[in-house]
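Milestone 3.1: sequence recovery, worked example.
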């Protein structure tokens, strides 16, 4: 019998929401993430960029020219694009409130195998759950751009923890600019360090006086939150003006030492460890990598192998639930037991109801 080489699969890739010129982005409005996704796919031999859609056709045309997409592959209507091209993978890089409707449309189309969506998942907890449920029902791989799981300092910290460098993990802490847009990365990483153990309860409180709408969703100015994992590990977050409470993006507190990722007082060394008995921190240089590219390659590899992606909907939901539960705790003025049984975004609901007074809206 003749011998055949390995079957080589080529994946066609399309994009919904190209955004403006990546050299002229506006933080909180558009960060042109499609360009960064596209650069990741272009590092994969098995991917071909076939089409893109944006409500502003000039944006889509500029994106297509930059990435070698044929003229016929430019659309304003993403549904028409999917019908015509039938792409294997679609990257969704639109404002957060549009994620759910677009992702659900793509999943239900029966024409795509995988959807890779920007973070945060959705603007409400109900919509986040719907996206995951529909992807599961229609057997479509759904992933999110929680790319920091693949960034060298965070990855190396996980290896040090697994190697027992600080004993058993007692508590994982996080600091950052906010708990929703930025925080979705960092809560996801807290879960990563806690081995994806289920969270049992969350308690939180926030301050929101200066309006901060990022990619279509309100973000608090300052959040304090605490939660507990089923494996006994505690979680703690301080965002906004409270970043200095933690003093790092992440602090892993173990029975025999601590690890800090991105400590605020040592930006030149984004990872350090202090074992029990050490007189000072050991600074660890981890090198660099393009985490977005690594995540895209992981997404493509999992599609081919059938392996569940680290940045898949299951893990994204875990992080998203903690975030919405912390806001819900502030609304209830009490601890929230999980699973979370609300549909909305509690912070947005409080703003809309006038229960949060923003200084920008005071005349």
């Amino acid at each position: 019998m003749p011998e055949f080489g390995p079957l080589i699969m080529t994946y066609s890739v399309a994009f919904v929401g190209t955004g403006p010129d990546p050299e002229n982005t506006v933080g909180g409005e558009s960060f042109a993430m499609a360009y960064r996704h596209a650069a990741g796919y272009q590092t994969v031999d098995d991917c071909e960029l076939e089409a893109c859609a944006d409500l502003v056709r000039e944006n889509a045309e500029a994106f297509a020219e930059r990435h070698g997409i044929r003229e016929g592959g430019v659309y304003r209507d993403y549904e028409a694009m999917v019908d015509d091209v039938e792409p294997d993978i679609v990257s969704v890089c639109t404002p957060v409130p549009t994620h759910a409707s677009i992702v659900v449309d793509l999943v239900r189309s029966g024409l795509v195998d995988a959807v890779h969506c920007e973070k945060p998942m959705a603007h409400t907890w109900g919509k986040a759950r719907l996206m995951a449920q529909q992807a599961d029902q229609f057997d479509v791989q759904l992933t999110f751009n929680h790319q920091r799981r693949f960034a060298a300092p965070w990855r190396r910290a996980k290896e040090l923890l697994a190697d027992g460098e600080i004993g058993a993990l007692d508590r994982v802490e996080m600091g950052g600019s906010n708990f929703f847009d930025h925080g979705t990365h960092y809560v996801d990483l807290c879960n990563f360090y806690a081995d994806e153990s289920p969270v049992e309860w969350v308690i939180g409180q926030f301050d929101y006086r200066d309006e901060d709408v990022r990619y279509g969703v309100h973000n608090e100015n300052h959040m304090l939150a605490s939660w507990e994992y089923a494996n006994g590990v505690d979680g703690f977050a301080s965002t906004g003006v409270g970043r200095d409470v933690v003093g790092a993006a992440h602090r892993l507190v173990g029975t025999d030492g601590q690890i800090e990722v991105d400590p605020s007082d040592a930006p030149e060394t984004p990872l350090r460890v202090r074992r029990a008995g050490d007189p000072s921190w050991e600074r660890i240089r981890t090198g660099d990598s393009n985490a977005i590219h690594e995540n895209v390659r992981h997404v493509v590899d999992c599609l081919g192998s059938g392996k569940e992606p680290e940045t898949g909907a299951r893990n994204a939901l875990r992080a998203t639930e903690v975030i919405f539960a912390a806001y819900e705790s502030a609304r209830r003025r009490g601890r929230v037991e999980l699973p979370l049984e609300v549909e909305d975004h509690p912070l947005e609901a409080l703003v809309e109801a006038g229960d949060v007074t923003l200084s920008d809206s005071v005349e």
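Residues 313-332 form the longest helix (20 residues). Confidence is low (pLDDT under 50) at residues 1-7.
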